Amino acid sequence: MKTRECLTTYLAGGVNSPVRSFKHLNREPLIVDRGSGAYITDIEGQSYIDYCGSWGSLIHGHAHETILEQATFFLKKGSSFGITTAIEGELARFVNYLMPSMEQMRFVCSGTEATMTAARLARGFTGRSYIVKFIGHYHGHADFFLVQAGSGVLHLNQTASSSGIPDSIVKHTLCLPFNDEKALQELFKTYKDQIAAVILEPVAGNMGVVPASRSFMNLLRKITEEEKTLLIFDEVMTGFRFSKGSAQSYYGITPDITTLGKIVGGGFPVACLGGRKEIMRHLAPEGTVYQAGTLAGNPVAMAAGLASLKLLDKENFYEELQEKADFLLQPVEEAIKGKKACLNRVGSMFTLFFGPEKVTEAADIKHLDNERFKNFYHAMLSEGLYFSPAHNEASFISQAHSFDDLLKTREVLLNYVCKYL
Ligand SMILES: Cc1ncc(COP(=O)(O)O)c(C=O)c1O
């Protein structure tokens, strides 16, 4: 049986995660065979410069030698025990050194588990039920996070954005427009003493890159502190992406709980939630909030994660990454000025939006020109460039991208802008 036929026959929808199917792009999905540095090669032998990097996990590129070495060393000692290993403590200590707000943490296997547990912990700690999230932000696929809301406090419309989720599950999820200070203030008045936590992507990546404004972030911290509501920074994507201290150091805000994923696992299935000891001790076995995992803290994945974090703890790591981002993106930014497009970026994560001239909140996403994106995406693939395969997603630059790779990419992008926009 041919590979493609085998996948479509035996996997639901042919994939293990929906965006990979390329259904929205009306084309057959890429089936990758291998990756090395900034490049991936598909089963037909076609190579691409990769700007998805396993959705931002691979800040050092594919198959980085040091990460492979460490993972292999641990793999040879035994792949899994379901018993505590020393490396779990070492990774936790290193995460705490980079992000001191995470005094204690718990490792899990996916971002979904981390955010789901963070919300349960916040509810257990505060004894309150409501969780506030922002429209367009994604926190994994736990039932109560898959909520689409109407815009504004007055039109709260808690309907799940997936079938299979009863209304009773989403009735404690409140959605707000991002960066809207007034809506935030009103919501806290309406639900006084009932909100367990506010969760957000400090720099949203899952509606394309959309940063929080500093004044919104300051207000959010102030209100949550005053109202004794926990502030959860979902840094699954932003964790270690544009600075060692992640988005919390970029904004100068200390959240109560942080969730991490992607980079913290060095390309392996690792995620994490952490915060102040007084909160974390509510997790079982010390406390009454339950969480567990057969493969949680898997030593091979921990070793890869630790190697990944040690590599980024080098002098000038982020300055160099910023230089690469500027080299690739500044000329593109210039070229699209006055055209029906905009480029949002923070550090090495970026999204090129077609349609609107600015995107600062989820409402702007409604004006995206998805047909244009589709054409763009097909053109890029034929030029050997693999960006994240959806219009409202972030793409990422890694340390493995050479200036030659970036120059080639820049020329293709500028040529496209010049010809088609
Ligand atoms: C900000 C954020 N939170 C949570 C998740 C869910 O993580 P996972 O796909 O590992 O379950 C993602 C995934 O992309 C994410 O970007």
What is the count of DSSP helices, taking H or I runs of 4+ residues? 15
Query: On the 0-100 scale, what is the average pLDDT?
Result: 95
Q: How many beta-strand elements?
A: 18
Strands of the biggest beta sheet: in what spatial order?
4-14-13-12-9-5-8
Q: Please, what is the CATH homologous superfamily of the largest domain?
A: Type I PLP-dependent aspartate aminotransferase-like (Major domain)
- Named at the architecture level, the CATH assignment of the largest domain is 3-Layer(aba) Sandwich
- How would you classify the helix and strand content by structural class? alpha/beta
Relative helix content: 25-40%
User: What name does the CATH topology of the largest domain carry?
Assistant: Aspartate Aminotransferase, domain 2
Overall shape: it is: globular
Bound molecules: pyridoxal-5'-phosphate
Radius of gyration: 21 Å
Largest sheet: 7 strands, mixed
Percent strand equals: 15-25%
Kindly provide the name of the CATH class of the largest domain. Answer: Alpha Beta
Q: Which residues sit in consecutive blocks of at least 5 with pLDDT less than 50?
A: 149-156
Number of domains: 2
N→C terminal distance = 43 Å
